[in-house]
Task: inverse folding
């Protein structure tokens, strides 16, 4: 706008244009202010309400992924352990039938009395002797590997104790057929029982009666009887 046109412009027209221009600026400012407030409200609402929820969901997703990986790892470990157990089962079955714990020795001691009485036999003597260590001559490498073990697992000569032998001396009197039934009942034990010595004699004064004297033995692991 040049000065000539400004001189020719009516003052009233100028005022009306200024007023209309000023009013338009105010509307723009109001709209801008409303938009700015809306953006601020959105950002505040997002960071106060929405962001924590999203963060929590992300953490849960990460935890789920971590748990999935652990489950896969556990499943692989279970398969490995099952294979190891299956491989060790024959050795376990062998040892579980051969070796007796202290409680199983007491149970056997009671079973001898029970089977004898059930078959009408008389127990003259039943004595459990002290466990006897059984040693083996291991190689130099085995002795080196076992050098730091407790000396209670070694006999006085310094040899490694492989197992303990627990003898039980008995004297049983009664009918011979009943004695055979007693032996049969005892042989059905799940644990191995060794008859080390047995002597059967007839009793002349009592027809059909016999007297059995003998020694049976069982074995136990060193950790149970050291």
Result:
């Amino acid at each position: 706008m040049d000065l000539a046109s400004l001189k020719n412009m009516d003052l009233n027209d100028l005022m009306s244009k200024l007023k209309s221009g000023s009013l338009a600026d105010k509307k723009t400012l109001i709209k801008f202010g409303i938009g700015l407030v809306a953006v601020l409200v959105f950002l505040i609402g997002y960071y106060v309400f929405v962001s924590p929820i999203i963060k929590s969901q992300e953490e849960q997703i990460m935890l789920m992924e971590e748990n999935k990986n652990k489950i896969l790892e556990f499943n692989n470990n279970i398969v490995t352990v099952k294979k190891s157990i299956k491989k060790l089962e024959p050795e376990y079955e062998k040892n579980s039938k051969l070796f007796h714990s202290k409680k199983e020795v007491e149970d056997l001691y009671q079973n001898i009395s029970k089977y004898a009485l059930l078959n009408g036999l008389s127990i003259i003597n039943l004595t459990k002797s002290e466990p006897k260590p059984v040693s083996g001559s291991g190689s130099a490498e085995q002795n080196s590997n076992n050098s730091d073990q407790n000396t209670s697992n070694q006999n006085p000569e310094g040899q490694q104790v492989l197992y303990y032998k627990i003898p039980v001396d008995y004297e049983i009197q009664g009918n011979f057929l009943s004695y055979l039934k007693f032996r049969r009942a005892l042989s059905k034990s799940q644990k191995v029982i060794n008859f080390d010595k047995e002597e059967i004699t007839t009793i002349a004064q009592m027809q059909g009666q016999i007297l059995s004297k003998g020694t049976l033995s069982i074995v136990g692991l060193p950790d149970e009887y050291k």
User: Anything to note?
Assistant: Confidence is low (pLDDT under 50) at residues 1-7, 138-152. The helical segments are 3-8, 11-98, 102-118, 140-145, 176-187, 222-225. The beta strands are 122-128, 132-136, 160-175, 194-202, 209-220. Residues 116 and 205 are 21 Å apart (CA to CA).
